[in-house]
Each structure stands twice: as structure tokens, then as C-alpha cells.
């Protein structure tokens, strides 16, 4: 599974790979450090894919955390990918207010889980000021201890005026195993000394063959490891850990491979020139994945919804004709999950922030020439916000826009089919088939909020009369359904059948 969906982090330190009860049981939370990576998408004049920031930043962070040798005190959140994108060479951004709200809401969720120290690790030159603002606001408004480290500060910067861009390019090219493509777009830079200056198009970076990317990466990772050690020790009674970085084996520099089948269709895996040159965009379909990071009982990880989203796309997209004009936008990983906030580890955005992210993403896709979008959502709590926003996208932006949903229903007992809608038989079986290493069946339980044969018409969902609820109203474990019914065999069958159904649904939208 591609680390670019959740976080390129060891499972021991990745927030999304923990269960809610694992996080709740952690001792000494005051001395933990929660890391929020912030990455943007852009050209940067490097002739490399638009997600080059995350490629470099996530690999660097993982190596530094390993070198700092404090896995028990570190947790890495999935990256926030939707920040400021003020220039034509920057992509998939949001307005500053939305970016700040997202940063605030994520760290507020971290605090709600009992943690009090947050480090923003930023690679984006256009989010530097926003991250600094968010860190100060979190310190003053939420009483969190907050820290900021930028990749530029450890020698791998992306700003057009950064003297180390050739070093950054060499590392990125090595991590991607790609030769930078020359760009024909002329530089457009004005008022470079008149802060903030205008950097409409960075000058093309000229590769430096004298650079050794392994040495550059090793040096920057060692610097970052030292900074992490200082942050870990700051304001605590614990001794500063020793940060040492062993020589980096060049073979370890490669990013863990993304999904071979899905990667060619990801828009951010293209260079800016490749994106601009895509033919027939008006007839293409762009899929926008929307997910969540939230509790899924004692037995499933917090990143279950995002992992299932990727599992489905990784199996459905290869079923399409090779020349089918179907592409995948960067995922909206965090969702509206406030119903689960009584359980540790849940991260929630507000409906307003989620809505603004989707509107901004749709508007940017339109500006690139695309006319059809399909939201593929794997968290029910997002649905109401997404559907209402899609109506506005249809009328305000004139796009053909809708949800990729309702294409498959598994055969289940009537009770589970009606009331097994969170971390029950369905999701647990799929995870047993697609990511069994993250499932703890010894912790699986059965909890139903009601019985299908109960009298009366008032229900949680899907009835003439419903009531608003939060998960702790109806479940002690966080499970709503019967997870004990799950098997890998059911999951394999359902994953195969549902992926085929998803592919058929996508094909109907290409007509």
C-alpha cells in the first residue's frame, strides 16, 4: 500500500496504524511528540512530479525518526496536503483561511486525544507563514506546546530563491529513480527582495552531477534527527536522547513503491508539463478520494477508511481499459468525524473546512480543463457535507459531479445489513483480506445499537424519523455491528466483487 496515502512512517510511529485503545493506553502522553507533516504540490522548477515535496519530506522524516531512536515517544500523523498554492506552478491548494482552519482542527483533535506536544514539519515554501501562525495559535488558544521545522532548515528547500534547490532536486530524483525533465516554461520572478516577492514560475533547476544524493540525504537526515532530539527533550524532565545516524544504505533511499496499478493514474505523479499536456480533459473523469482518520474499535486501525479507499481503487482501476481517461486527485484524508470524538485518535475536520477543501479541489480541476469529477467516499460521516457541496459544484462550477456510491452490497444477515455500519463484519472482513497485518481479531466484539425487529419507527439512520447520535451513545468499544463474523475469505470475495462493481460504475460515467 502506498505510504503517500497515510504517512511514510514505520507502523510503530504512524498515528493512522494504531487502534484507538492503543493510543488511549499510552503512558506519559505529556512527553510524546505528535508530528504533523505539511506538504504542497507544485512544479518548483525541478522537472519532477507534483508530489515531490512529500516524496522528499516523508523519506527524510522517516530516516530522521529512525536515527533519533525514540519510537515510543513519537507519532506521525497523515500529512496535510491542502495548503496555500498562490502561483500557477503550485497546485491543489486552498485559501489561507481554510488551510489555517484545517491545521487548527487537526491539532485540536490531537489535544482531545490527550497529547500536548505537536511538531509541524513543513516542506512547502508557500505554507511557511501559515504554519507559523497555526503553531502560535495552538500554543495560545489550545495550550499546546508547538514546534516548527522546515525542510529548508535542514538543507532541502523548495523555495525558488533557496540556494539548495539543486541538492533537493538530486535527492528527489534519486528517491523517484527519475531523470528531471527539462521545462520549457520561462521563469517569472519579480520583486524578489520586496517581501514576499512574486514567484509566478521558478527558474528551472540545473542538475548538478557533482552532487552525491546519498550524502546529501544522509546529512540532512542527521541534522533533522538532531533537531527532533532537541524538540523531544524541550520542556520535559527527560534527558535529551542521542541522535546518531548510521551511514545510509543507498538502497534504503527509495520510497516504498506506491500501488503499481493506481500510480500511473494519479495526477500528482505527473510533472506540470505532463499534466498540462493530457489530451481530452473535458471527457476525462477525475476521482476524488475522501476518507477519515477515526476510531474503528479495539481491533482495526484509525486509518481504516483511507486504507479501504486505496484498496478498492488499486483493484478497480486496473480493470479499466488502459486508455480510459480516468485519473485520481490527491485524497482528502481527514474527514468529518466528530461523532467519534469520544474515542482517542480520531481526527476531525468541521463540515465547513471539508466543504471548502472539496470546493477548492473541484475549482482547481476545472481550471486545469477537467469537466467531470466523481467523489469516492469511504466514511459515512462525510456524506451529507459532500452531497450538498457537490450540488454547489454542479451549479456554481458547471461540472458534471457526483458520488461513486451504491454500486455494491454484500450479502449479510438482516441485522448486520441494517445495523452493522462501523467496524463490523464488512469493514473487518475487507481489512482481513487487504491489510491483515493491521487487524487484531482477538479484540473483535459485537455491539448493536438496536435490533431490526424492535417496535417503533425511530431509528439511527435510514428511516422516516431519525435522531442525531455520537458513537459513545450506542457503543462502548466503538464498533457498531458484529466484527466477530468477519473472515478473510468473505473479505477476499467482497473485495473482488465490489472492486469489479466499482470499475463498472466508473466506466458508465465515461459515456
Walk me through what this model shows.
Among the domains are: 1-258, 3-Layer(aba) Sandwich (Rossmann fold); 414-494, no CATH class. The chain contains 14 helices and 16 strands. Strand 11 (372-377), helix 10 (383-397) and strand 12 (400-403) form a beta-alpha-beta unit. Helix 2 (52-68) crosses helix 5, helix 3 (96-112) crosses helix 4 (128-141) and helix 12 (425-434) packs across helix 14 (488-508). With 511 residues, it is an alpha/beta fold. The chain is globular and about 75 Å long. The longest helix is centred in the middle third of the chain and has 21 residues, at 213-233. The strands form six sheets. The protein has a four-stranded parallel β-sheet with strand order 3-1-5-6, with helices on both faces. It has a four-stranded parallel β-sheet with strand order 10-9-11-12, sandwiched between helices. A two-stranded antiparallel ribbon has the order 2-4.
How is this structure best summarized?
The two termini are 31 Å apart. This protein has helices at 20-24, 52-68, 96-112, 128-141, 165-176, 213-233, 272-277, 304-316, 351-367, 383-397, 414-419, 425-434, 471-474, 488-508, and strands at 33-38, 41-42, 74-76, 90-91, 117-122, 145-150, 188-190, 198-201, 285-290, 326-328, 372-377, 400-403, 446-447, 458-459, 465-466, 481-482.
Amino acid at each position: 500500500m502506498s505510504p503517500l496515502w497515510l504517512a511514510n512512517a514505520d507502523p510503530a510511529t504512524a498515528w493512522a496504524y494504531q487502534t484507538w485503545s492503543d493510543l488511549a493506553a499510552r503512558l506519559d502522553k505529556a512527553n510524546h511528540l505528535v508530528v504533523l507533516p505539511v506538504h504542497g504540490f507544485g512544479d518548483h522548477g525541478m522537472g519532477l512530479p507534483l508530489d515531490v515535496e512529500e516524496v522528499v519530506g516523508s523519506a527524510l522524516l522517516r530516516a530522521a525518526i529512525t536515527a533519533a531512536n525514540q519510537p515510543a515517544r513519537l507519532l506521525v500523523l497523515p500529512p496535510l496536503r491542502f495548503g496555500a498554492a498562490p502561483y500557477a506552478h503550485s497546485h491543489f491548494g486552498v485559501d489561507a483561511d481554510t488551510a489555517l482552519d484545517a491545521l487548527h482542527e487537526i491539532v485540536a483533535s490531537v489535544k482531545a486525544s490527550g497529547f500536548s506536544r505537536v511538531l509541524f514539519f513543513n516542506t512547502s515554501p508557500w505554507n511557511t507563514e501559515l504554519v507559523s501562525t497555526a503553531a502560535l495559535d495552538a500554543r495560545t488558544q489550545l495550550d499546546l506546546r508547538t514546534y516548527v521545522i522546515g525542510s529548508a532548515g535542514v538543507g532541502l528547500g523548495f523555495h525558488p530563491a533557496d540556494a539548495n534547490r539543486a541538492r533537493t532536486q538530486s535527492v528527489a530524483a534519486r528517491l523517484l529513480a527519475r531523470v528531471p525533465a527539462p521545462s520549457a516554461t520561462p521563469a517569472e520572478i519579480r520583486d524578489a527582495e520586496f517581501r514576499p516577492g512574486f514567484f509566478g514560475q521558478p527558474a528551472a533547476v540545473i542538475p548538478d552531477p557533482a552532487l552525491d544524493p546519498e550524502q546529501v540525504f544522509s546529512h540532512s537526515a542527521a541534522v533533522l534527527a538532531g533537531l527532533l532530539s532537541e524538540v523531544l527533550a524541550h520542556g520535559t524532565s527527560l534527558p535529551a536522547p542521542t541522535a546518531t545516524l548510521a551511514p545510509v544504505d543507498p538502497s534504503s533511499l527509495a520510497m516504498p513503491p506506491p500501488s503499481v496499478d493506481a500510480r500511473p493514474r494519479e495526477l500528482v505523479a505527473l510533472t506540470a508539463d505532463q499534466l498540462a499536456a493530457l489530451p481530452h480533459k473535458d471527457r476525462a473523469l477525475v476521482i476524488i478520494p475522501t476518507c477519515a482518520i477515526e476510531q474503528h474499535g479495539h481491533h482495526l486501525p484509525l486509518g481504516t477508511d483511507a486504507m479501504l479507499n486505496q484498496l478498492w481503487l488499486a483493484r478497480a482501476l486496473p480493470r479499466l481499459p488502459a486508455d480510459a481517461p480516468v485519473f485520481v486527485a490527491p485524497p482528502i484524508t481527514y474527514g468529518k468525524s466528530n461523532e467519534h470524538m469520544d474515542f482517542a485518535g480520531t481526527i476531525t475536520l468541521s463540515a465547513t473546512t471539508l466543504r471548502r477543501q472539496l470546493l477548492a479541489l473541484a475549482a482547481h480541476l476545472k481550471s486545469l480543463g477537467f469537466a467531470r469529477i466523481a467523489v469516492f467516499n469511504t466514511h459515512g460521516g462525510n456524506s451529507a457535507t459532500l452531497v450538498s457541496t457537490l450540488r454547489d459544484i454542479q451549479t456554481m462550477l458547471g461540472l458534471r459531479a457526483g458520488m461513486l456510491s451504491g454500486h455494491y452490497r454484500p450479502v449479510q444477515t438482516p441485522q448486520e445489513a441494517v445495523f452493522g455500519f462501523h467496524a463490523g463484519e464488512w469493514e473487518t472482513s475487507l481489512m482481513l483480506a487487504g491489510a491483515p497485518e493491521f487487524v487484531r481479531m482477538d479484540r473483535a466484539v459485537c455491539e448493536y445499537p438496536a435490533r431490526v425487529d424492535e417496535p417503533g419507527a425511530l431509528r439511527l439512520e435510514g428511516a422516516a424519523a431519525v435522531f442525531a447520535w455520537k458513537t459513545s451513545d450506542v457503543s462502548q468499544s466503538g464498533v457498531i455491528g458484529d466484527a466477530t463474523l468477519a473472515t478473510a475469505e468473505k473479505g477476499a470475495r467482497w473485495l473482488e466483487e465490489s472492486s469489479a462493481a466499482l470499475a463498472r460504475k466508473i466506466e458508465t460515467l465515461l459515456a
